[in-house]
UniProtKB/TrEMBL annotation:
Principal location listed in the UniProt entry: membrane
Key word Zinc present: no
Subcellular location, record wording: Cell membrane
Protein name according to UniProt: DMT family transporter
SUPFAM superfamilies per the UniProt record, alphabetical: Multidrug resistance efflux transporter EmrE
Chain segments annotated as transmembrane: 37-56, 68-91, 97-116, 123-145, 151-170, 177-197, 209-228, 240-259, 265-284
Amino acid sequence: MTRVQANLLLLLAGIIWGMGFVAQSTAMDSIGPFFFIGVRSVIASLFILPFALVEGRRAKTRIRPGEYLSFIYVGLAFFIGLALQQIGLITTSVTNAGFLTGLYVVFVPVLGVLFFAQWPHPVVWPSAIACFVGIFLLSGGALTALQTGDYLIILGAAFWALQVILIGFANRSGRPIAISCVQFAVAAAAGLVLAVATEELNWNALMLTWKEILFTGVFSSGIAFTLQTIGQRYTTSAQAAIFLSSEALFAALFGAIFLGERISFIGFIGCGLLFIAMLAVELVPQVWKRRDEAPTPAELAEQKG
């Protein structure tokens, strides 16, 4: 798979996540956050399991215990980020939440450098900032006073960033679908245990929201996060984060289509910044590489001689 194809997979994941915001916003009206996470993750893990088994039969080597441990780390980062986001939404606005979650786009290259000595291509830094500003404008260009929920969502964004980075390491196993399956199994177990301990399990509400839960389980979780894992095998974590940030753009688009929400003028500017950032990350490295590979005038003269 080429890097362009991988980035298109990441873009498709962003589209699916954008659609998932519509389903998630309606389902959370009647079901607890941990129960919601647990059930959607059970559906996701069961949906992905057959594909993971086929992947395992085709693989030339078995997964080592250390690799399984890295899969579990990905699942823990995924669950913590998701849980902090859901709990944070209780005491903050959707506008603040959408904007602050976008911090992961900046956190990915920063954490990659600080903790893993992963230096991204120079174009990633301005592109990440452009994405961050674009998400801010797309969310309305305003930020109300920070409350407890906002700090939880900021912390959750750090764990989303960590999940993106850890997938980069776990992908060395060559088993992206297995990573995705284990990730969901970990989130399902953690979510259901905490739901039993802290929430009242409303099975009637579960039946009322089965369409939303099925969509988020199969598409937003099972398919989209697996596309993320596969796509990240062929691109860097920092570049992947920028393409995955298209989630905010498509969330606004589908919110306008299905929920009657409207994008403001500055919101369209934000969409443009996100689009420019994705183009820059895709095209600039290619131009940079061709420039470096191009022969110098002296080399051309030598070749003619």
